[in-house]
Specification:
It is a single chain. The chain is an alpha/beta fold. Strands 1-3-2-6-9-7-8 form a seven-stranded mixed beta sheet, sandwiched between helices. A two-stranded antiparallel ribbon has the order 4-5. It has a single domain, classed as Aminopeptidase. The chain is globular. The chain is built from seven helices and nine strands.
């Protein structure tokens, strides 16, 4: 059986940038509960299942930057490709107030099955793309919800995340975004370092320049919004890298 774990756009584009989208879709393979995790369709349409708008933004951004892009093709609730294999949140049983029935009783064998059929193929493909350029840089695209349940609204339009282990691009990207007039969080709404995540695995471990960009998902919920933010971000990303001299 052929499993769809990812897709690639512009594989042979020449840019040193590689655009990644770890949480591109909310697809549940049919071999898991017949394609149903046991939660309501409205929940599967929320940020808990995927990064709303991120795939369209990543695609538009990669096209503008003449860069390859890779996208996961399974919901983060099935197994999270932006987590290391030993991360306790790799397979979530509760997320932002929603219980995930199909994960509640998932045992080690089920976890291994999802790793083998989805998580590992995605990362093998990402590794191959990253290795295809000798001076590769990685730009990860994510989105965040304007407000978690029971929490205050998040004020940022853009979040720039980076690890304490590599601050070559992150702080400069924060400053550049703020210069554009965008309300920008620095390592907000999430901390910029997580052992075993995609940036750690495919950029930090090899010393590759990198940044992770989070867009508030109401800003990129439509193709028009995705295209608009891709047009805004592409020249800023290029300028920050050029000025860094890396």
């Amino acid at each position: 059986m052929t499993e769809t774990a990812y897709w690639i756009e512009g594989q042979n584009r020449p840019s040193r940038w590689l655009i990644t989208c770890d949480h591109a879709t909310n697809r549940v393979p049919d071999w898991i509960g017949g394609g149903d995790l046991g939660i309501a369709p409205a929940d599967m349409a929320r940020h808990i299942a995927y990064d709303v708008g991120a795939a369209g933004l990543a695609s538009a951004l990669a096209e503008r930057m003449d860069a390859p892009a890779i996208f996961s093709d399974f919901s983060r609730l099935v197994i999270d490709p932006n987590r290391g294999e030993d991360d306790p949140t790799l397979l979530m049983r509760l997320y932002d107030g929603t219980v995930i029935p199909a994960n509640r009783d998932a045992d080690a064998a089920e976890r291994a099955r999802r790793l083998d059929r989805l998580h590992r193929p995605y990362h093998r493909a990402l590794t191959a793309l990253a290795d295809a350029h000798p001076a590769r840089c990685v730009c990860a695209i994510h989105s965040f919800t304007p407000q978690l349940r029971g929490r205050p609204p998040r004020p940022w339009q853009v979040g720039i995340l980076y690890s304490h282990r590599d601050a070559r691009l992150g702080p400069a990207m924060v400053a550049a975004c703020r210069d554009e007039g965008w309300v920008t969080g620095e390592n907000q709404p999430y901390d910029g370092h997580l052992d075993g995540d995609s940036i750690d695995r495919h950029a930090l471990a090899q010393g590759r320049p990198n940044m992770l960009i989070e867009l508030r998902n109401d800003l990129i919920a439509t193709p028009e919004g995705q295209a608009e933010w891709a047009a805004r971000l592409a020249p800023v990303i290029a300028r920050v890298l050029a000025q860094a001299g890396l």
